[in-house]
Amino acid sequence: MNELPDKRQVAASFSRAAGSYDSVAELQRSVGAQLLETLPPACTPQRWLDLGCGTGHFSRQLAGRFPQAEGVALDLAEGMLLHARPLGGARQFVVGDAECLPLRDGACELIFSSLALQWCADFAAVLREARRALRPGGWLAFSSLCTGTLQELRDSWQAVDGRVHVNRFRSFEDYQALCAASGLQLFSLRQQARVLFYPDLRGLTGELKALGAHNLNPGRPEGLTGRARIQALRQAYERQRQPGGLPATYQVVYGVLQKPR
User: Fold this and answer.
1) In the chain, is it the N or the C terminus that has fewer CB atoms within a 10 Å radius of its CB?
2) DSSP code of 167?
């Protein structure tokens, strides 16, 4: 897989976006709600972890779903936690890394993570840490993004200058192989394309910036992008316009795994 962004840049970008994130997070809310619905009836945790909790929306959803359970909200971006903490939901709000969880062995029965793990370069380490931190019989439920996400934007940039302007993601086949080798029992793993439409290019790029999810790749062009290149990008993207507007496809991965009893 191609190199992913430096975690410090990811944390800084999402911290800056904490105040604007919820105003544009329609897809993130929808994907997370769908992930919640995939939790099996047997999942009744005494303690849960919202891994990559962001502004805490799903921490509050989990608290409502499991009112007797103790919740921990964890995120790499301290700015997100500062935004989430006053809104409640979890008992603890912790700065931490999915590849090295600050939790003891067998600390919880559910790890819930929606649209956060795509930023982790070592997904095998994420799965190892999940297995370690879960109690026997505990569940990992995650959503992430895979190859093909924002392909329309990537193709349009390719037509302009061929440089890296769009975040890279691992393939669905990589998710399949890594989950199969994780030592966790695979309950379900699937890919679903979600297409959003925008009236113009600025609508898309403005939303990505407000989410903190604009281009963070190593090798991205430095400095401001020239007006001529932006105009060329606009023209290239317009060739993909559909009746609903300019399409932006997100290839979403949903996975549910269980630690063997």
Assistant:
1) C
2) -
Going from the C-alpha of 167 to that of each of 57, 99, 147, 216, the distances in angstroms are 24, 20, 10, 6
Give pTM, 2 decimals.
Answer: 0.90
Residues in the chain: 261
Give the gyration radius of the chain's Cα atoms.
18
Give the pLDDT confidence score for residue 1 in this predicted structure. 44
Cβ of 22: how many Cβ atoms within 10 Å? 18
80-93 pLDDT, tens digit each: 999 999 999 999 99
Give start and end residues of each alpha helix (H) in 122-252: 123-133, 151-160, 172-180, 201-211, 227-238
Specify which of 18-27, 169-178, 198-207 reaches the highest per-range mean pLDDT: 169-178
Average pLDDT over residues 101-106: 98
Nearest to 29 by CA among 51, 55, 47, 64: 55
Q: Is the CB of residue 65 less than 8 Å from the CB of residue 57?
A: no
Contacts of 160 (CB under 8 A, 6+ apart): 229, 232, 233, 236
Alpha helices, DSSP H, located in the chain: 7-16, 18-21, 26-37, 57-65, 78-84, 123-133, 151-160, 172-180, 201-211, 227-238
Pair 119, 5: CB distance under 8 Å: yes
Mean pLDDT rounded to a whole number for the chain: 90
Instruction: Give the torsion sign (CA, 89, 102, 128, 185).
Output: negative
Give the fold, CATH level 3, of 7-150+168-197+250-258.
Answer: Rossmann fold (3.40.50)
